[in-house]
Every structure is written in C-alpha cells, then in structure tokens.
Amino acid sequence: MNIIAKLGLAASVLAMSSSIASAESTVRFWYHFDNADNPMNELVESFESQNPGITIEAENIPWNSYYDTLYTSIIGGNAPDAAMVKMFAQPRLIEMGALEPIGDRIDAWADKSDVQENLFELTSAQDGSSYYLPVQYVVLYLYYRPDMFEELGLDVPKTCDEFRAAAKALTRDTDGDGRTDVYGFGLRGSKGGHDHWASLTLGRDGVSLTDGIESEAAIAGSQFVVDMFREDGSFPPSAPNDGFQEIIGGFKAGKTAMTIHHIGSANGMVEALGDKVSATTVPECGGGHWTAFGDESTAILSSAEDKDAAWKWISFLSTAGNNAKFNEATGQLPVTKTDSATWTLHPQRFVEATVDSLPFANLLPNRTETSDFVNTVWPVSMQRALTGEITAAEMNAEIAKLYGN
Amino acid sequence: MQTHNGPESADDAGRQSRRRLSKRILPYAMLSPAVLVTLTIVFLPMLQTAWMSLHEYVLFRPKEFKFIGFDNFVAALQDEVFWISLKHTIIWIGVTIPGQMLLGLVTALLLNQEFRWRALARALIIIPWALPSVVIALMWVWIYDSNYGVLNDFMLRLGLVEQAVPWLADPDLALGAIILTLTWQGFPFFAVMILAGLQSIPKSYYEAASLDGASAWRQFWHITLPGISGVLVTAVLLRTIWVANSFDVIFVMTGGGPGYSTYTLPLYAFIKARTNLDFGYGSALAVLFTFLLMGLVLIYLRRTGKAVQ
C-alpha cells in the first residue's frame, strides 16, 4: 500500500512537472550586434509580455567567432534554438542537418505579405526550400569625401579607371611635412574584406567565383587592387591587416577619402563628418557592375526543443514595428514594407545609394566552400598578393582551387 | 592460555595485514581523484585528438567520419603552410626564450642590488606577466598602429623613419613585432625565478671570491651562474613549452597574417580545426607538433641535465 502510494505520488509529481514544461518553454537565441546600446532586452520584454509562458534567452555572441561558435555548438549538442544567420553559412548548416525547414510556417504566416518578396527568393536554399526568415539587409556602396573631391576638382568615380585616378590624386600630403597623411581608399585587407575586392573584380566580363576566376579579366581585377596598393600607394600601408574598425576609423578620422561599406555605418560617419561624407555606387569595372548584398536572417535549428515557440520569436522580429526596432540597433534596413515606408533613421543620400545599388547586388555562391573563401582563402591570398609574396594570378588560382574549377 | 592465544594472534595478524593493505592502498586512494581528473580532462582529449588525426573528419559533415590511416600526416608533410608555420615556430621559440631569459637575468641582477624602492620595483616588474594575453595583444596593436601608434610617433619625431612603418602589416616585420611583445610579456617570469635563485646563493661565496681578487665578471661566471643554473633550466623548460603552445597573442594581433607571415604550428592547427572545421587535419597538425615539442624537450633535458651535473 505504502509503495503504491509512493509510486502514485511520484507519478503525479512527474505529470505535474511535464505539464509545467509544456506550458513554460525557453527559446535560446543567438545574435550579434556591434551596437553597445543593445535594445534586445526591450524586444524580449515586449515579446514575453505578449506570449506568456515563453522565455527568451537572447545571447550576443561576438561577431569574429560567431560562426565558429555556432558550428561547434551544433556538433557539441549545445546549439541555440534559433539564431541570426547569413546566406554564406546556409549550405554548411543544411549539410550538417542543423536547420529546420520553415517554408510551411512562412506560407501560413499572417505577416508574410509585408516582407519584401524578393528577399524570400534571395534567401531560399539551392533546392528551393526555405530555412531562413529575412530580418534585415544592406547593400555595399562607396563612401567618399565630397569636400576632398571638390578641393581637387575631381568627379565622383563611375568606372574603375576613374576610381583609380581619383584615389591616386586624393593620396597626398595635406600638412606639408613631406609625409602622406591622406590615402585615396581604405581597403579592408583582412577577414571580411572580400567584398571590396569582389566589387573591383567580380563585375568583369565572364567572372564569378565558381567560373572564370582564372580568366584574364579576373586576374586583371586582382591585379588592379594590388597595383593600387603597391604601385600607386593609394591605400594606407596597414591595408593588408586592416579590418572593419580600421577602415571605418580611418575614414572618420580623415585618413582616407573613400571606402566601401554599407548603410550600417552611415550614422556614425555623419556624426563624425557631418556633410563631408556622401555615398555613391561602387565603380563599374571591366564593363560590369557587382556589389555585395548583405543579408541577415533568422533560422530555427533542428535541435530546438519547442519549434513553435522559436518560430513565434523569430517571426516577431520580422514583423512591422519590431523589425524597425531591431534595425535601429543594427543600423541596417528593415525587411518589412511598412517599416521601409516610414524609415527615417538614415539620411536620404545613403538610402539612395543603397537603392541605386540593388540592381547589381549579389550574394556569394551558395556553396559550402564559401565559408572557407570568406574566412581563410581570400584573406590569406589577398594579403600575400598585397605584400608581393604571390602574384594576382596565383591569388586567383588559390580561389579556383577552393571552388574546384 | 594457549586456547586463548590462538584466535588473538590470528586477530592480530588479520589486523596487521589489513593495516598493511590500507597502507598500500592509501597513496592510491589519495592520488586517485587528481589522477582521475587529469585522465578525463587531459589524457582523454589527447587520445581523442590522436584518434581524430587518423580520420577524415570535417565538422560540417559529421556523418563522414572515415578512417584514413596516416593520410593527414602525409598531407601535412607535403603542405607548404606546414613548413612555413614550422619555420616560424622555430624562430618564435628560438628568439623569444633567449630574449626573455636575458632580459629576465638583467632585471633580476638589478633587482638583487640594494636600492630605495626596491620592494616597489619588484612588485611593478611583475605587471606584464600578470596581465591577460588578450589585453597585452590589444595594447601592443595600438602601440604598433601605423596611423595613431605611439611607436611610429616616436620614430617619426626622432627622425628615425620617413614614413610610418606598418609593423603588423609588413610580412618582414610582423613576426618580429609579435616576438617583441611576447618577450616583454614573459620576461618577468624569468626575473622572479632568477631572483629567487640569486637569493639562495650565500653571501660568503662572494666575500671569499673578492678576497681572492676575483673580478665582478669572474664572480658572475663562477658563482652566480652555477648558483642559478638549476632555476634557469627549469624556467627555460617551462617557458619553452608555454611559448611554443601559446598563440593567443598572435591570434589577437594579426590572426596569422599578413598572408602566412605570423602562422605558427599551434595557430595553424587551431585555424584548420576551428575556422575551417577540418578537425582531422587540425588534429594531425597538433599531434605532429606534440611529438616535435617532446623531442625538443627530451634533447634539452639530456643536454642540460649533464651540464648542470
């Protein structure tokens, strides 16, 4: 009798705890924000008040090791339930079996029609199914100093040749001490700088990362970048090692007259330079135009315990209003039509440069090799080419070897 | 009496053998927690690494865990980057350790003199050693910065250079610049160890030597150096292993760049495994490096063991 009573008690405790577990669920969410005044807590609070029973544990993972941490957490069995993700990582995540297909959820979602349609196409997988829900986007364009251009009587460059000539002219000694103190262009030579090189190379006739990267036109693109550094001296000497902080810091401090980045840094630049900063599309090179589309989506991981709760959270972030708040923090552009129509966070000239760049904005190839291209192959071979250890042709050969073409 | 004695002596013998047994077991029982922890957190991962190095194991293809024998090792020996990294590792150890030791020795000799504020100086000297590597790396990145760095500013003002030098972006200078940083970080360890050694040398030796007319150099060579040789051997051994394995400062300062110019073997293994997610190849690099380092340590111990004796 006693034993039966004990068993009964244990069973009822178990039943109670399991019912608590189903009512109370936690969504672990990983994201990366550079912004120090992170408004994520506000979004979490607002979500939790609308969805009692779901707790969001949002964790800001440093960008430099974001994907390393994400991949190893998946293998280690400690992956988050949902995470912020970019397209270049999608093939790998799919290959790992780490992503939950969300096509049906997106189709059934009331706010689907408010998200700009082409974004769903851009972020769908190679086989056409959907794993990503877009949350923000940017397009890379050219920042320049109109005051410096005016001072030297230069026109804003439209082609690669004009760009090179302008950069050379802008590289000068402004205080008369015999030393160069302004450089024409701030090149990002370390990890993350592939977009700079790509803008000057991949637009050329018949060139793409997976095809024709060893053609004459493609080699001319890499050579163009190397020559601007080694022959013209138009980049700061630290260019091979420069990352995001250096190129943005250098431009804000007036050390460089041009650089390539997206609208995410526009407000910081205006704060530092006021009217002395403007934007235009990247130059057209070798008869074609190429710039990088900077995508950012959210995804549910296949290991998520409560996928419904995870979906509620990520769709919340891509809904009008919340999406605006999210992008106010990242400084990028909202994906919802409603928020885009009322967007006033960035000065008009930067929004225009973004819109003008959209027609030739591209993503890197949707292949597993792209991660290695971004993380090691491009930075190492670009740095070696810039420092003269290898030629432009050898650099392109390294990329061709990676993609097996 | 006799009948009484029998069971008692059997009891005694039992107690004694139990005591003997417990005496034999006790050391093992006392050691086992530490041994168990070491086995789980050091030896198990080591075995796992060795096991992984014999496999094709790319993290984003977790299902394709294929045994390939020594293919990873063969590939490493044919890999240009392996040899570049090995060369840099040798330079890295070969310059940093003597640099740290010499600087540490000089510092220790100075700190062993009588002067005011000696206690304060002894405390301050430990600062570089006490700072986290990441802080040191970031600090020196700023010192070397070609636009705002204090080093370039000094050199420009003194007229030593015409243009700011991109210390970390020039493949010929980057490794040297990082070695200097690490030398600065590690010399206090030598200084403190050597200082302890110096204080154990009896003053009377020096008094006797100076009575015999020995010069300061002779005193250093025949009394000081033999007196601290034991400490030096240990300190060099420890630092060699630490410096050889440490890549955090390189990782933060250049990430291995520009190109491969600051790649060392542990960094290469880390990048292969963690960034490229090729754990099979990364493990093979790590295993190779472990054997190389073990060989170096054995040779060192043999040679110095003889010298010290």
Give the number of helices of chain B. Answer: 13
The proportion of strand residues of chain A reads: 5-15%
Strand fraction of chain B:
under 5%
CATH topology (fold) name of the largest domain in chain B: MetI-like fold
User: What is the structural class of chain B?
Assistant: mainly alpha
In total, the number of domains of chain A comes to 2
What general form of chain B does the structure show?
Answer: flat
Helices of chain A, by number, come to 18
Helix/strand order of chain A, N-terminal first: HEHEHEHHHEEHHHHHEHEEHHHHEHH
User: What characterizes the major β-sheet of chain B?
Assistant: 2 strands, antiparallel
- State the CATH class of the largest domain in chain B: Mainly Alpha
A few lines on this structure:
Chain A has 405 residues and is of the alpha/beta class. Helices cover 45% and strands 12% of the residues of chain A.
Notes on the protein architecture:
The complex is a heterodimer of chains A (405) and B (309). Chain A has 405 residues and is an alpha/beta fold. Chain A folds into two domains: 26-139 and 293-351, D-Maltodextrin-Binding Protein, domain 2 (3-Layer(aba) Sandwich); 141-292 and 362-403, Periplasmic binding protein-like II (D-Maltodextrin-Binding Protein, domain 2), CATH 3.40.190.10. Chain A is built from 18 helices and nine strands. Chain A has helices at residues 2-23, 40-50, 66-75, 90-95, 103-108, 117-122, 146-151, 160-170, 194-201, 216-230, 244-252, 266-273, 307-317, 322-330, 337-341, 348-357, 369-386, 392-403; strands spanning 25-31, 54-60, 82-85, 132-139, 141-144, 258-261, 278-280, 291-300, 361-362. In chain A, the strands form two sheets. In chain A, strands 1, 2, 3, 4, 8 and 9 form a six-stranded mixed beta sheet that branches. In chain A, α10 (216-230) crosses α18 (392-403). Chain A is globular, with a radius of gyration of 24 Å. Mean pLDDT of chain A is 89; it is low at 13-22. Chain B has 309 residues and is mostly helical. Chain B folds into two domains: 2-53; 70-308, Orthogonal Bundle (MetI-like fold), CATH 1.10.3720. Chain B is 76% helix and 1% strand. Chain B is built from 13 helices and two strands; from the N terminus they run αββαααααααααααα. Chain B has a two-stranded antiparallel sheet. The relative contact order of chain B is 0.12. The model of chain B has no long low-confidence stretch (mean pLDDT 89). The A-B interface holds A 68, 71-72, 75, 92-93, 95-96, 178-180, 189-191, 236-242, 250, 253, 255, 368, 372, 375-376, 379-381, 383-384, 386-387, 389-390 and B 59-62, 145-147, 156, 162-166, 168-171, 254-261, 271, 274-277.
